Amino acid sequence: MNYYPEPILKLISSLSTLPGIGQKTAERLALHILHAPNHEAATLAADIIELKTSVRLCSICFSLSDKDNCRICADPLRDKTLICVVENPTDMAAIEKSNAFFGVYHILGGALSPMDGIGPDDIRIKELFQRADPQKIKEIILATKTDVEGEATASYIFEKLKRTKIKITRIASGIPMGGDLQYIDQLTMQKAMEKRYGF
């Protein structure tokens, strides 16, 4: 790519470090930014700087926030007696988009993975236990992923909290709506059979 001047090459290189952005996409984006009006490029640059300087973790649930407490924790209409435990902010966003949950969250910041050297002290499990006051919390929903690490994390939390008077539940998993049984993998089918319910 020696046919581009150095500033374009540097931007292509920077953009290609973003997840899902290959060299060709980075090249297209860099050229788009180059030909965009100056105010659009300036706005993009300012938004990136603001993102890096103002976004932090909520002091209660560890979600992303631009204030000490995130919007969900600060919302007086949310049910503070109901905590949904997720691995990361994108999991929380997926649940929020469903409009099916009106409690608050606890973001672990990952899942237990002994193979990768990630233990209970490496994610925010201790902080969850500190929030798990039976006088204030009625239910904790474990909404970690259904992979090996997510299941191990949910089991670990359940074992540690089962002696409290707090109701501990796990999100259901199994056959998706409209799913064709012949294309369902064995683990999903197993979970669907285990979590079957009556009419």
What does this structure look like?
By secondary structure, the chain is an alpha/beta fold. The protein folds into two domains: 6-54, Orthogonal Bundle (Helicase, Ruva Protein, domain 3); 64-178, Dna Topoisomerase Vi A Subunit, Chain: A, domain 2 (3-Layer(aba) Sandwich), CATH 3.40.1360. Helix content is 42%, strand content 13%. It contains eight helices and six strands; from the N terminus they run αααββαβαβαβαβα. The chain has helices spanning 6-15, 23-35, 38-54, 71-74, 89-98, 125-131, 148-161, 186-194, and strands at 56-57, 64-65, 79-86, 103-107, 139-142, 167-170. The strands form two sheets. The protein has a four-stranded parallel β-sheet with strand order 4-3-5-6. The protein has a two-stranded antiparallel ribbon with strand order 1-2. Strand 1 and strand 2 form a beta hairpin. It starts with 5 loop residues before the first helix and ends in a 5-residue tail after the last helix. The mean pLDDT is 91.
| Structural domain count | 2
Number of helices: 8
Tally of DSSP β-strands: 6
Overall outline: globular
SSE topology string = HHHEEHEHEHEHEH
Return the average pLDDT rounded to an integer.
91
Pick out the low-confidence regions. none
CATH architecture of the largest domain: 3-Layer(aba) Sandwich
